[in-house]
Amino acid sequence: MTRLLLLVLLLPTQAWAQTVIESYELQIYAPGVDPAILTNLPIQTTAIPAASATCGLDAPPLDPTLVINPVFVWWDNTPNGLGWCQADRAAFFGGLPNANGYRAVITATNVAGTSPRSPGSDPFARQSAPAAPAAVRLTR
Question: pTM (2 decimals)?
Answer without folding.
Answer: 0.80
